[in-house]
Amino acid sequence: MGEKKEKKIELIQIGSRLKKIKLHFSYNRGQISKIMGISPITYTRNESGEQLPTTRSIMALHSRLGVSLEWFLFERGPMFWKPEGAKSWEIGLADRLPPELNDMIELMNKIPLLNHSIMLHFQELKIQHKDLIREALETVKNEPAPPMNLK
Questions:
Q1: What is the residue range of 125's domain?
Q2: Does residue 12 lie within any of the structural domains?
Q3: This model's pTM is above 0.70
Q4: Under a CB-based contact definition with an 8 Å cutoff, are residues 41 and 30 in contact?
């Protein structure tokens, strides 16, 4: 299978998960796009697999709706995430990431070209090194979850 075809399949799968989220909450296109901080047209492009959602819109799904990033990006684990012992899904991912990743995410949100370049590189890496990624994901699945550093 060609790289372009594999990229398209990945985009369609992410779009399918967006649709599952929308249907789960019984939202219409306008409601979910507002939550994600994007226009309804952009949402339609994301859901149809024409365009990859931005980091900012993915993080909005996580922080506002409790969508698991692991499920959304890799279709692993439950659709929704709640930290152990947490009373709500309001605990943000930024509290658990190293500072340099927070800096990168902030810059990706401010510089669309950086966002798309990093996401494109990530997708290409997944395609070019499928076996390595699959092996790493299997290792992660079989290891106990590390303790979370929640404030």
A1: 3-82+90-142
A2: yes
A3: no
A4: no
